Amino acid sequence: MTRSKWLQFILDQMIWFILILVVIFFTVRTGGKFLSGVTLINVLLHASVLGVLTIGQTICLLSGNFDLSAEGIVSLLTVLAAWLMLPYREMTLAQAGGIGWELSPFIVIPIMLILGTLIGWINGMLITRLRMNNFIVTLAMQLFLRGIAYVISLGAIMPGTPKEFNWLGGGRIGAIPVSVVVTLLLFLVFEFFVRYTRFGRELYAVGANRDAARASGFKPERTITQAYMIGGFMAGLASWMLLGRLEVSTPTLGQGMTLETVASAVIGGVALSGGAGSIVGAFSGVLLLSVVDTGLNIMEVDPFWITGVRGLIILVALLLEVQKSRIRVGTVPGRAKSPIAQS
Predict the structure, then answer these.
(1) Are the C-beta atoms of 57 and 223 separated by less than 8 Å?
(2) Domain 3-342 is in which class?
(3) Per-residue model confidence as pLDDT tens digits over 67-92
(4) pTM of full prediction above 0.85
């Protein structure tokens, strides 16, 4: 193996080395408390909702697009689900009830997933058919959806979701939360899906060079729309998971998670320019952010420092991405070679 290939391998796997070092650091500083079973479960539990959203964000990033609407979808769907399931009660300044329909969770859950997918389809159509900017479209969609959530709830919380609904977010298989098991399975399934299916090849090709992908017989508009539909579906699933865990709906749920999903993907080696990265890489970014948050909380560090540390981690990730681009032959700065180009 040549020197450049060794450097490329080291840089590609650097995120895992950093993750191991961070775990060792927190283990030493907390006197071994960080490696307790409860703490490790909490790390994975914290990573579950973020991880599901990050999968959807990664799919969109691989196609060369952003999806800033995910947190708006979470805000709307969590409020809508509670509104449809909860009994009617007189609204107070702090709490609100549902519309009074008291729909079964087995009806509400499919509504959430279908509506999330539909919102993703609308994003994709606006971007591909009307040639609107993906950043502006999804940002406007986020604001629009959160506005509807506030209209429905009037800013009040809606507590008391049914036990059948709460299974995904609050259920356990033995000592392991259901949400952790589902999230890990989703990462494995989507890693296989992106790596070894035709859609995955189209996704990398479109993200790397849309014109070249079209010349190769792919349909970039269809692929991008499908990517946004997957992102919307994953946001719907994350909404179910988050509301099931908290058992309380509020229009602020999901707020700020968009930047976390982008950060997790970038930390894990997904190129902002598209066409490079992996689902497993994004998972490493989710784990790193979750480990940092949990470790600093155990150490009782000022919460404001957590934001600063996150920003530093993202800057280091971007620095590593630039270095990987420099040692690859035939790539431009900021874009890593996709599996298609490597094969």
Answers:
(1) no
(2) mainly alpha
(3) 999 999 999 999 999 999 999 887 77
(4) yes
